Amino acid sequence: MKKIWLNIHLLYRKLTAKDDRRLMVFLICLVIATVFWFLNALNKQYTVDLRFPVKYTNLPKNKILANSPPDEFTLKVNSWGFTILRHKLSMAFSPLVFNVNEFTAGQMENSPNSQFRVATRQYINRLSSQVSNELKIIDIQPDSLHFNFDRLVSKKVKVKPVVSYTLKKQYYVEGPITTEPDSVLISGAESILDTIQFVQTKAQQFKELDKNVLRNVPLESSDAYQTEPGRVMLQIPLEEFTEKQVIVPIRVTDVPEQVNVKLFPDKAKISFMVGLSHFSTITANDFSLSVSYADIEAKKEILTISLNAEPLNILSVTVSPEQVEYLIEMK
């Protein structure tokens, strides 16, 4: 039985080997035929569409482009198959350069008009020089280009600082955060600049500040306009603050002539934070406290103190006590 199975196995191997040789011969013949067919096909001329990126240069100096012309041209070209295949296998085409002023003989720059339409077919010869001389351009799509221009203008706008910060204990921002210069010149399309009232600095962040900030920072950029200068000096004035207290008399407003009002107490303590540079210059005379006789007429038993005047450059103002009692005497 084993001998029979061995003979069957040997016969199968012989038949399989014979079929493999036939299959291999067939595949080699097929590959050779395909190669010859492909070479023959490439030796013929074809008309195909190729897409090229476009770069627009030399735009009118006294105008600014307000629209976006097509960023690529589709060229219908005629050439040998080998040439077309080589171009299609290349990863990317070099951009076609559309020299606006040169191609239009300066008509756009010298014309008062703001809208122009140009047919692309008239530039086939000019563009052919930028493409391989092995390719013959038959047609261009799109068949026309539209250029919409706006008047180029300039104006000054304020600079708006964009700042976030934290301060060390007892340090405060002593004045407004400013930039130098406080205004810059922007240039661009008139329709766009009409909507712009200010430009911002790029966002700046500071932590645990304890001294003045003076930093050269960039302005936010935009493709819609140019900014001159593009950087400004950011200034954040800081000062160390300390607590100060003053005793201020309380007056009663709108008191009738025949009435005398006694307050208990008749003075209040005002506490506040003040910068060291202003500490000695601020006195009780810079404050004004009062209560209203109208509250007495309204039968209120306790009068609320109002802070009517206080100096600049102080923070965290408190009045103690906030209310007083009173006694009325007739003159």
UniProtKB/TrEMBL annotation:
Q: Which UniProt keywords apply?
A: Membrane, Transmembrane, Transmembrane helix
* Highest taxon of source: Bacteria
Q: Which Pfam families match?
A: YbbR (PF07949)
So where does this one cross the membrane? 21-39
InterPro entries, per the entry: c-di-AMP_regulator, YbbR
PANTHER family tied to this protein: CDAA REGULATORY PROTEIN CDAR (PTHR37804)
Q: What is this protein called?
A: YbbR-like protein
Q: Which organism is it from?
A: Mangrovibacterium marinum
